[in-house]
């Protein structure tokens, strides 16, 4: 392994990610959209400029291997914070309202995912369908269309001052529940292709580790240490998360599951600062993960961009999330404008969707073409969130214009 070469590529990736964030802010988009695009487009850009020989020189095998490991480390550390937020986030709203919005943002999206899966299995080109078992493929596509990115949604709400709005609270509460369910379904989908019984045993083991971990970390000594030594605590959390994540991957599940086990096991309170440090480190390295994903996209055969699949995925994704979120908001008793805002917000996919798709692609559930179509869908639906919210804001009911008094109308 050439350490200097790896360090140079890593520096270029981080600079590209920073540039992507700057460009996204200038375009009034969530920063993660620019970050994902920058990471994914690094490899195609090298190919376009210098062709395959240049790509082989810039990213030889002994450099790609360490990059994959670094990307995985970043992803695991970042998802520890995501899981922790899923566990401890709250909406402060009534259970009935949250229940309707959650059902509306999840069930119709799952159904549209099943529609797309049926199209892929029975009508689409065999190259798009791939070789995955039908049940695993169907569940994978359904999960892909039902995800809402909690981290990206939180950033959108913060940037637009909507954190405490009814629509923002409802959307975030629904996203927390739907993403939790989506991760479970993802594990099942991967398990179907690799041995469902073994996967269910591992899931049960993960649940047990989570429960035991929460009990142990709530005791006096760990809580005191976390409060006094937050940096050392963060380093310990990172080490345990990597150990657990890669062990579960070695056993046949995705490393994502292991990171969620650790994130869900960590209590709130004094532990939050240490978790934030772990998440920040992971976020810094996640662009490397996108570069690795971009290599898979770049390896797609030339002339095989699945335009029809992209159009179908975007259309069904918008119908399932925006339409379903709107329906859930109306059933929850919200006015039309608030319900539509909820629908637009839960249509934000971003980083979470890319992680789900990469897990499905690595497990052999998604072909390169289908992976590419769903990645474009994730970016498109996330990118349309800001413009659609701006349109909704401009459609507010105008303030009543005072009627001028006629001369002599006063008594």
Structural overview:
The chain is mostly helical. It has one domain: Na+/H+ antiporter like fold (Up-down Bundle), CATH 1.20.1530. The chain is built from 18 helices and no strands. α8 runs parallel beside α15 and α14 packs across α15. The model has no long low-confidence stretch (mean pLDDT 83). It is a multi-pass membrane protein. This is Transporter (CPA2 family). It comes from Saccharothrix texasensis.
Concise structural overview:
The protein is mostly helical and 411 residues long. It has 18 helices and no strands. Its main location: membrane.
Helix-strand layout with pairing:
Elements: H1 3-26, H2 31-58, H3 61-88, H4 95-122, H5 126-129, H6 134-146, H7 150-159, H8 166-194, H9 196-217, H10 220-228, H11 230-251, H12 255-265, H13 271-298, H14 307-331, H15 336-346, H16 350-362, H17 368-383, H18 385-394
Helix pairs in contact: 1-2, 1-3, 1-13, 2-13, 3-8, 3-11, 3-12, 3-13, 4-6, 4-8, 4-14, 6-8, 7-8, 8-9, 8-15, 9-12, 10-11, 11-12, 11-13, 14-15, 14-17, 15-18, 16-17
The CATH architecture designation is Up-down Bundle
Count of individual helical segments = 18
By CATH reckoning, the class would read Mainly Alpha
What value does the average pLDDT take? 83
Order of helices and strands: HHHHHHHHHHHHHHHHHH
Structural class, please?
mainly alpha
Chain oligomer state: single chain
Number of strands: 0
**What is the radius of gyration?**
23 Å
CATH fold topology: Na+/H+ antiporter like fold
Q: In angstroms, what separates the terminal alpha carbons?
A: 93 Å
What's the shape? globular
The main β sheet shows up as:
none
- Total tally of structural domains: 1
The share of residues in helices is over 70%
Q: What percentage of the residues does DSSP assign to strands (E)?
A: under 5%
Low-confidence spans: pLDDT under 50, at least 5 residues?
Answer: none
Transmembrane segments: 6-24, 36-57, 69-86, 98-122, 134-158, 170-190, 196-217, 229-248, 254-272, 284-301, 307-327, 339-361, 367-389
Domain Cation/H+ exchanger transmembrane: 14-391
InterPro entries: Cation/H_exchanger_TM (IPR006153), CPA2_transporter (IPR050794), Na+/solute_symporter_sf (IPR038770)
Keywords: Ion transport, Membrane, Transmembrane, Transmembrane helix, Transport
């Amino acid at each position: 392994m050439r350490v200097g070469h790896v360090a140079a590529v890593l520096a270029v990736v981080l600079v590209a990610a920073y540039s992507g964030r700057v460009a996204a802010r200038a375009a009034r988009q969530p920063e993660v959209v620019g970050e994902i695009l920058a990471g994914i487009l690094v490899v195609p850009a090298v190919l376009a400029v210098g062709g395959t020989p240049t790509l082989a020189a810039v990213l030889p095998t002994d450099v790609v291997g360490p990059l994959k490991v670094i990307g995985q480390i970043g992803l695991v550390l970042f998802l520890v914070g995501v899981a922790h937020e899923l566990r401890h986030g709250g909406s402060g709203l009534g259970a009935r309202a949250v229940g309707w919005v959650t059902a509306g943002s999840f069930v119709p999206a799952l159904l549209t995912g099943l529609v797309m899966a049926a199209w892929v299995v029975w009508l689409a080109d065999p190259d798009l369908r791939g070789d995955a078992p039908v049940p695993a493929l169907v569940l994978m596509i359904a999960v892909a269309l039902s995800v809402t990115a909690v981290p990206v949604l939180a950033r959108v709400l913060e940037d637009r001052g909507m954190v405490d709005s009814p629509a923002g609270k409802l959307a975030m509460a629904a996203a927390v529940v739907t993403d939790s369910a989506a991760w479970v379904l993802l594990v099942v989908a991967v398990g179907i292709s690799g041995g469902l019984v073994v996967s269910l045993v591992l899931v049960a083991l993960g649940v047990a580790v989570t429960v035991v971990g929460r009990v142990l970390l709530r005791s006096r000594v760990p809580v005191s240490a976390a409060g006094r030594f937050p940096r050392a605590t963060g380093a310990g959390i990172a080490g345990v998360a990597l150990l657990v994540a890669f062990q579960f991957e070695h056993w046949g599940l995705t490393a994502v599951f292991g990171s969620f086990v650790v994130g869900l096991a960590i209590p709130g309170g004094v532990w939050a600062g240490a978790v934030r440090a772990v998440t920040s480190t992971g976020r810094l390295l996640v662009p490397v993960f996108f570069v690795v994903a971009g290599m898979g996209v770049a390896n797609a055969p030339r002339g095989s961009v699945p335009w029809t699949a992209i159009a179908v995925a975007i259309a069904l994704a918008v119908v399932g999330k925006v339409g379903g979120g709107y329906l859930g908001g109306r059933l929850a008793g919200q006015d039309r404008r608030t319900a539509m805002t909820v629908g637009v917000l839960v249509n934000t996919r971003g980083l979470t969707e890319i992680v789900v798709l990469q897990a499905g692609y690595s497990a052999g559930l998604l072909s390169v073409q289908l992976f590419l179509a769903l990645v474009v869908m994730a970016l498109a639906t996330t990118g349309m969130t800001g413009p659609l919210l701006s349109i909704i804001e401009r459609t507010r009911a105008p303030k009543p214009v005072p009627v001028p008094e006629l001369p002599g109308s006063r008594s």
